[in-house]
Every structure is written in structure tokens, then in C-alpha cells.
Amino acid sequence: MSMLSNLDLIRRVPLFSMLTNDQARAVADGVVKRRYRRGEIVVEQGKKSNALFILLNGRARVLTSDSRGREVILAVLEAGDYVGEMSLIDNQPHSATVRCEVQSDMLILGRPEFARCLPENSSLSYAIMRGLVTRLRSADRQIESLALLDVYGRVARTLLDMAEDVDGEKIIRGKVSRQDMAKIVGASREMVSRVMKDLEERGVIETLESGSVVLKNRMPE
């Protein structure tokens, strides 16, 4: 790795294949190289790193976990893959952890250098990127729920995701379709109905006459 210049390395990464010479040099001037040990964490779920990480060689796993430490593998990264771009685009914490399976070399591009490669914040393309990141985060969360939570937990999480804050309360406007909920959480309509009934009987949720659902403070996260 030390024998190649940053520009040489940039030119080998598919992500940067369409850059002009000037753009490639600008990126090359902004990156730093780092070697990660086997088992070392590159980015951590729930935290920010403010950088884009491009894998030059080696292999890493993208993982998500619950409060009990159970893990789900979302992806396996190899040379040319990259992580951290979602947090750089929407300025939110990482939705997953990336851990090296073997010794791996990476290029790291900081937030200021990354921002110079993006279109203006007011542009349509930037708005589309932010929309795609929102969808990706939702997909990661759905995969995690299906893999780690039981039906009760998946229903509770879906209700939380559907709710909006109204005068200090979490409310789902409009009737919550048991059939739609069943399709979202991957369970039968009958099972979802039982879970919803149990939540109501325990005072965790309240269904109003309008059909809207109010989520109480003791709603499980």
C-alpha cells in the first residue's frame, strides 16, 4: 500500500472512477490511509465518525445488534466497498457497526473533503440522496427487527416508527390497519391483533374514537 500514491489508490476505487483528473486529485489530497487489525471496529452503531471509509483490501462485516448483544450481519464488505456515507449525508449516527474480519487497509475521507465532492445542499440531487439515505436506514431497521425481535417487539417498534409528536404525545393519525401491520412485521393478522389487544389492555396504547392511536410513555422501545 505504501508504494502507491493517494491518487493511484483513488483511481483503483470504483466509487471514484468517473471523477475528472482535478476532482480525483482533490479527493487524493484529502484522504489518509489507515490499517485496521482483525476484529477492530471501523464505525460503531449509534455514533458518528464524520468520515467516509473506503476498503482497499481485506474484508469487513456490517453488523447491527440489540440491547442483549445479539448480532445480525447486514453485509460483508470487500475491496472497493465503502461505509460512512449515510451519516455524512444526513448527519445522523451510524445505523450499524463495521468490524474488520481480517487485517484491512482503508482510505479515510473527512467530512469537509467529502462535502466538497457533493452538489449544493439546495440541489435536487442532494435532496434525492437524503431521501435514499432515509430509505436505507429504514431498511436496516426493518432487517434488524425481523431478525432480533419477536412479534410483540416488532409491532411495538412499528407503532413507534409510525407515530408523530403532537402536543407532547406520540400519536398515529388514522386507523391502524391490522392487515398492513401484519405485512410490515412479517406475522399473521391474528397474531398482530392479539398483540395490539394486549397493548391496549395494559394501557400501553389507547385507540381513540377517531381511530387514531395514542402511544403512552411506557411504550417499549
Automatic annotation (TrEMBL):
Assigned keywords, A-Z: DNA-binding, Transcription, Transcription regulation
PANTHER family documented for this protein: CRP FAMILY TRANSCRIPTIONAL REGULATORY PROTEIN (PTHR24567), HTH-TYPE TRANSCRIPTIONAL REGULATOR ARCR (PTHR24567:SF74)
All copies of domain HTH crp-type, residue ranges: 149-219
SUPFAM superfamilies per UniProt: cAMP-binding domain-like (SSF51206), Winged helix' DNA-binding domain (SSF46785)
Name of the protein described by the UniProt record: Crp/Fnr family transcriptional regulator
Domain of life, source organism: Bacteria
Lineage: Bacteria, Pseudomonadati, Pseudomonadota, Betaproteobacteria, Burkholderiales
InterPro entries: cNMP-bd_dom, cNMP-bd_dom_sf, Env_Response_Regulators, HTH_CRP, RmlC-like_jellyroll, Tscrpt_reg_HTH_Crp-type_CS, WH-like_DNA-bd_sf, WH_DNA-bd_sf
Chain ranges of the Cyclic nucleotide-binding domain: 15-135
Pfam families: cNMP_binding, HTH_Crp_2
